[in-house]
């Protein structure tokens, strides 16, 4: 499942710096996560890095983008094809 940032976001920029997929962008009034790029840090960390650094717990599961582990693995492989060569 992709993650999303809710209205609790204080735009502190902590999450954006942690995302290995560059899925987090500055938005107005709060940051957003691109569901096409979010792999919940599969292939990088045991847990999503953004969750651990968000000071206000504004990052939650996105109910509109439910994905299986296999789908997250595939997305990771597509995003990082160059790294595998």
Secondary structure layout:
Blueprint (H helix, E strand, L loop, with lengths): L2 E3 L8 H5 L5 E2 L6 E2 L15 H5 L5 E3 L7 H11 L6
Antiparallel strand pairs: 1-4, 2-3
Q: Which secondary-structure class do the elements indicate?
A: alpha+beta
Describe the strand arrangement of the main beta sheet, using strand numbers.
1-4
β-strand amount: 5-15%
Number of helices: 3
Task: State the helicity in percent bands.
Answer: 10-25%
The unreliable regions are none
Description:
With 85 residues, the chain is an alpha+beta fold. The protein contains 3 helices and 4 strands. It has helices at residues 14-18, 49-53, 69-79, and strands spanning 3-5, 24-25, 32-33, 59-61. The model has no long low-confidence stretch (mean pLDDT 94).
Features:
two-stranded antiparallel sheet; single chain; 3 helices; alpha+beta; two-stranded antiparallel ribbon; 85 residues; globular
Précis, in short:
Helix content is 25%, strand content 12%. It has 85 residues and is α+β, with helices and mostly antiparallel strands.
